[in-house]
TrEMBL record:
GO annotation terms (biological process): carbohydrate metabolic process
GO cellular component: carboxysome
Annotated InterPro entries: A-D-PHexomutase_a/b/a-I, A-D-PHexomutase_a/b/a-I/II/III, A-D-PHexomutase_a/b/a-II, A-D-PHexomutase_a/b/a-III, A-D-PHexomutase_C_sf, LbH_EIF2B3/5, Mannose-1P_guanyltransferase, NTP_transferase_dom
Name of the molecule in the record: Mannose-1-phosphate guanyltransferase
Residue span(s) of domain Alpha-D-phosphohexomutase alpha/beta/alpha: 383-513, 533-631, 636-743
A Pfam family of this chain: PGM_PMM_II
The keyword Membrane appears for this protein: no
Protein biosynthesis recorded as keyword: yes
SUPFAM superfamilies for this protein: Nucleotide-diphospho-sugar transferases (SSF53448), Phosphoglucomutase, C-terminal domain (SSF55957), Phosphoglucomutase, first 3 domains (SSF53738), Trimeric LpxA-like enzymes (SSF51161)
Record domain Nucleotidyl transferase: where: 3-232
Membrane-spanning residues: none
Compartments where found: Cytoplasm, Cytosol
């Protein structure tokens, strides 16, 4: 008799255990589930097994090979193009099934008597027999009702509570006659429960249900996975143990050393080549794989530890799962139901909260408390704040529950009864998260002034007029459309300093959250006349009469963002001829490619209308790209230089603030106008602070981040920038193209290479040590300056990604090309060398 082992499942609900394993290959008692099934088949004299594979098929083939080592004959059928479903995969191998055959799921632990089920099938003359069992809670399974003759009369897949009509459920094990497969179409996804059995019932084929005695557990989710272990250790199911029983309930593999002072309370299973340290305590139900090291004084209460894990001293593990090759450093706590994926590291004294799942190859920093799933990214850090506010994948890292806690943590650092503003862009995800933040703030007694969907320059500008302690703004990340960015402002509208960020992080991770009584819960109000307040400040800092008398025609693409609802009102007040594109609000943001298409269309419209210039506004009103009168885009370093030139022409001897990597053309332009240049770290907060704290700053920022006009408000403002451009073009009586032509011709190039986080610090040290101190500027990254040529190379680690950016700047293009290539090779060689050393160690 042949058996079909359905082993194609990806096991989504078992992740992160199944990120690199098919579901049937997940170990139970240090043996794959599929091996327990194969052992069951062999015990029932079924030795010809056909495994149907789809997800990561090579893992199972490499393990079982031809099956000889397991006492069976194994063959494999792989669904190459698409999953065919439970029934479709069996139809796919119909030519191999010419006699009565058994179908069994590869993701359950059972000790059913399959020979007894086969006798039942033959006695009844059945064409199809479903092996059934009784369970206390049938909601997760297919419920089946049979008549007095055990013939199936009704079944329902995964019923709701009100639909339960039996506690007898389908176990995914079937005995079938080969002709029944004729009912299934070839090459089409088909399911036994949803498609095949309803059809047999409709056709009146003799289909029976055999209620089997014995143990059965569908290992469909993580709770069931742990339960299967504990049941097996308690002797509730007949399985073959991988190791001999040293004494009652204690199974120990070969070459394993257990310190005499360790306390082991059976049932416990310990694999081959393990080391159990002094005074370690292993409670009943603990399962330890092969090649595992347990440090001294470790306290293990029913963890399931896979092969190759290293558990440090004084570690506490509580009914958790530690996957292959994971390291849990000393004094860490991994609590009930938590799962740590393969090859991850849990730092010293870190804590993983109950039920939290960590995907493979992640790093939990020492002392960190992780209370949300860690799926994307590489590290769970002790800090929430990055280069700019709190950023993360929308609805994955930044979820409603995360935002509620973050809001409560921020509110807990303020006085009870304080007021804060909350604003956002118009995207649906931002609305959801801002409401969660508001709930968290209210819960700790903070009153919220909800500005709702507001351009970020407006939110910053009105904040000082509202007498609040600070503000929060939620928007899609300006550089990554699948990320959210949550920014925190002080009472003046400037991003909060690092010290304040640390206080919020402390409240968040320590869960030191204030809880207000009912009468102290915060309130929500909705301030009005925000745009009017912003417009008043806007007008004060413009030559409005110049704009009114201007004959400029401007085409503005708002990219379906909230700034489109603000700027037309302002320009309309000044009588400016503005053609508006894409000003309607949209709940979703255009992608980078879609924005490029819109930019091309903007250039065409500018040419067709013979407009003065065009502009595309992005980043919720903070950033912009110009298009000149012939439709050519002006962005990045060219835009920085152009804005510097225009502002200093109107306001000579002013100070310009730019990031460290900005083009050297800025200094040349400033020199023409007796101006000064201040360079800052390459992050928006540093630019804002420098613009606020230095005297006579007339412009700050860059084409990549936006431009700051400190007299208006401390943040970036594309809307004011557009109005200022209209004013200055009139005063200076030149077109953008003409001004562009007057800019210094400086060669400025950048290349980016991947650099592991662990190598960045060593790379910076190496560069500092291998250059004369007089040639270095260390504002941010390492800038190597050739003062004779007024040229430089900047090696700048990326703050948010495992990348390093190499900038080269000179009047001599050949110098730039040569040095860019030279430093790229130097950096790449150093990274490869460091990685080789780390791998060797």
């Amino acid at each position: 008799m042949r058996a079909v082992l359905m082993a194609g499942g990806s096991g989504t609900r078992l992740r992160p255990l199944t990120c690199d394993l098919p579901k049937p290959m997940v170990p139970v008692l240090n043996r794959p589930i599929a091996e327990h099934i194969v052992n069951l088949l062999r015990r029932n004299n079924i030795t010809e097994v056909i495994a149907t594979l789809y997800y990561l098929p090579d893992v199972m083939r490499d393990y079982f090979q031809d099956g000889e080592d397991f006492g069976v004959q194994m063959t494999y059928a792989v669904e190459e193009d698409q999953p065919l479903g439970t029934a479709g995969c069996v139809k796919n191998i119909a030519e191999l099934l010419d006699d009565t055959f058994l179908v069994i799921s590869g993701d359950s632990i059972t000790d059913f008597d399959l020979q007894e089920a086969l006798r039942f099938h033959r006695e009844k003359g059945a064409k199809a027999t479903m092996v059934l069992t009784r369970v206390p809670n049938p909601i997760e399974f297919g419920v089946v009702i049979t008549d007095d003759e055990n013939r199936v009369v009704r079944f329902l897949e995964k019923p709701s509570t009100s639909e339960i009509f039996s506690d007898t459920v389908n176990t995914g094990t079937y005995i079938l006659e080969p002709e029944m497969l004729d009912y299934l179409p070839a090459g089409i996804e088909q399911d036994f429960s949803k498609d095949f059995f309803p059809l047999l019932l409709e056709k009146g084929e003799p289909m029976y249900g055999y209620v089997a005695d014995g143990y059965w557990c569908d290992v469909g989710h993580l709770d069931a996975y742990r339960e299967a272990h504990y049941d097996a250790m308690a002797g509730k199911v007949l399985v073959d143990y991988a190791y001999p029983e040293q004494r009652e309930g204690l199974y120990v593999g070969q070459n394993t050393y257990i310190d005499p002072t360790a306390k082991i309370h059976p049932p416990v299973l310990i694999g081959n080549n393990c080391r159990i340290g002094p005074r370690a305590v292993l409670e009943p139900g603990t399962v330890i794989g092969d090649n595992v090291t347990i440090g001294s004084d470790a306290d293990l209460k029913r963890p399931i530890i896979w092969n190759g894990a290293i558990i440090g001293e004084e570690t506490h593990l509580r009914a958790c799962i530690i996957s292959r090759g994971t390291r849990v450093d000393r004094r860490s706590h991994v609590l009930e139901g938590a799962v740590v994926g393969a090859l991850s590291t849990v730092g010293e004294e870190a804590q993983i909260s109950p039920g939290v799942r960590v995907w493979p190859s992640k790093i939990i920093e020492s002392g960190a408390t992780l209370n949300i799933n860690l799926i994307w990214g590489n590290t769970a850090q002790r800090n929430l704040f990055g280069q700019r506010g709190v950023a993360g994948l929308a609805n994955i890292d930044i979820t409603p529950e995360f935002a509620v806690k973050l809001g409560a943590a921020y509110g807990s650092t303020l006085k009870p009864g304080a007021h804060v503003t909350v604003s956002r862009d118009q995207r649906s995800i931002s609305r959801m998260v801002s409401r969660s933040l508001i709930a968290g703030l209210m819960s700790v007694g903070i009153n919220v002034q909800n500005l709702e969907a507001t351009a970020i320059p407006v939110a910053r500008a009105v904040l000082p007029t509202l007498e609040v302690a600070g503000g929060i703004h939620v928007r899609l990340h300006p550089d990554r459309t699948n990320y959210l960015l949550i920014e925190f402002f002080n009472e003046k509208g400037i991003d909060i300093p690092k010290g304040k960020e640390k206080k919020i992080e402390g409240a968040y991770f320590k869960e030191d959250l204030r809880r207000s009584q009912i009468h102290e819960i915060g309130t929500v109000t909705y301030p009005t006349r925000l745009v009017e307040t912003y417009a008043t400040a806007f007008e004060k800092r413009l030559n409005v009469e110049s704009i009114r008398s201007s004959k400029s025609k401007v085409v503005i693409d708002y990219g379906y963002a909230v700034s489109g609802a603000v700027l037309p009102i302002l320009l309309g007040k000044f009588g400016c001829d503005a053609v508006v594109l894409n000003a309607s609000l949209s709940a979703t943001a255009p992608s980078a490619d879609e924005r490029e298409v819109l930019l091309g269309q903007l250039g065409q419209v500018v040419q067709a209308l013979q407009a003065t210039f065009g502009v595309q506004v992005t980043a919720n009103g903070e950033q912009l790209i110009l298009v000149d009168e012939v439709g050519s885009p002006i962005r990045g370093e060219t835009l920085t230089a152009l804005m510097t030139h225009m502002i200093l022409t109107a306001q000579p001897r002013g100070t310009i603030v730019v990031p460290v990597h900005a083009s050297g053309a800025i200094e040349q332009i400033a020199h023409r106008h007796d101006g000064q240049v201040i360079r800052t770290k390459a992050n928006p907060t540093a630019l804002m602070e420098a613009c606020h704290t230095n005297n006579n700053v007339v412009l700050g920022g860059s084409g990549d981040m936006g431009f700051i006009f400190p007299q208006l408000h401390p943040g970036f403002d594309a809307m004011f920038c557009i109005a200022k451009l209209i004013e200055m073009l009139l005063i200076q009586e030149r077109s953008l193209g003409q001004i562009w032509g007057e800019l210094p011709r400086v060669s400025h190039r950048v290349q980016t290479i991947r650099c592991p986080w662990t190598v960045k610090g060593a790379l910076m040290r190496y560069l500092v040590e291998t250059h004369p101190a007089d040639d270095l500027e260390l504002i941010d990254g390492v800038k190597v300056v050739d003062r004779a040529r007024q040229s430089w190379v900047l090696i700048l680690p990326d703050a948010g990604e495992p990348l390093v950016h190499i900038f080269a700047n000179s009047d001599d293009r050949d110098w730039v090309d040569q040095h860019l290539q030279e430093y790229r090779q130097r950096v790449q060689s150093f990274i490869e060398k460091e990685q080789g050393i780390k791998e060797a160690s």
